Amino acid sequence: MAPNTQIEKKTRFEVSPLKHDFQQIDWDEQLQSDWGEILQLAINEDLAHAGDLTTAALVPEDAPGRAAIVARQSGVIAGLAGVPAILAAIDHRLHLNPKIDDGHAVEPGDTVAVLEGPARGILMAERLTLNLLGRMSGIATLTRRYVEATSGTNARIYDTRKTTPGWRRLEKYAVRCGGGYNHRTGLFEAVLIKDNHLALGATVPGAARFTPAEAVERTRQYAVEHGLATSGKSTIVEIEVDTLEQLDEVLPAAPDIVLLDNMSTDELRAAVSRRNAVNPEIDLEASGGVNLDTVAAIARTGVDRISVGALTHSAVCLDLGLDWL
Prior knowledge:
Elements: H1 29-47, H2 53-58, E1 64-71, E2 75-76, H3 83-90, E3 95-98, E4 105-106, E5 111-118, H4 119-149, E6 156-158, H5 168-177, E7 191-193, H6 195-203, H7 212-225, E8 229-230, E9 233-234, E10 237-241, H8 244-250, E11 257-261, H9 265-278, E12 283-287, H10 295-299, E13 305-307, H11 310-313, E14 320-324
Parallel strand pairs: 6-13, 7-10, 10-11, 11-12, 12-13
Antiparallel strand pairs: 1-5, 1-14, 2-4, 3-5, 8-9
Helix pairs in contact: 3-4, 4-5
């Protein structure tokens, strides 16, 4: 299926969790704190101790300014919630007047927001603001295309931990703005038994060796022994399998989610049928080989989730600009 070049003109999709689901990221105090730390680094690298030499030389200190952030291409906006912190850090007299909300689709020429205040401050905040919005809006835009490509199916699009170091919560928030869902935020949030966990016992002397089913049972036991819970729920246990035979072995152990790694669409359909016959409460997640040309066919197999690393590691910044008014 060819990539859809049109972006549906709607605000952020409402994201309701599944029975077995991870924390869904909103712009809250924790995310604001993350952004504050990144922002300080960004200001240091752009202004250092000398400030904006060009603006100081050419723009009168008392000159007022008013400028619009304008979309140069179609896409979905994310990151507006972080702009006020930029303005406050540069000059407390700067004001943001957003024209849309995060999650809203835009076309070329649309005004995203208006900045007002000292002209010097607007110029110093320009690149920081456009970098934030461009990066996060690029992720939201790509996510929306995946979501639209799977429209009409029950499959949900999930992100991964393949994120920019330090930016994870920001990028996962952008995925939500695009209508996607957040997989686990970090290793601390849930159990995900991958092939390297199981292969370790066969290659490293002294390491415990588990079958997939034994690994599920062991991690559940560990969670109970250590009183682990997420938002009052039992710790989610997910396991990766590469073959239908491994799936058959692990289904009786009743993991919450089984990740089907790099399976063909025929194998995915067979996996759904086998899951339904044994335990329909187990969610199936497809991963590997997912792109805009393949995602629709994968979704039609009946899997519940499709995880896509490209949402965060391959998104291109959305082109936005600043125009004086």
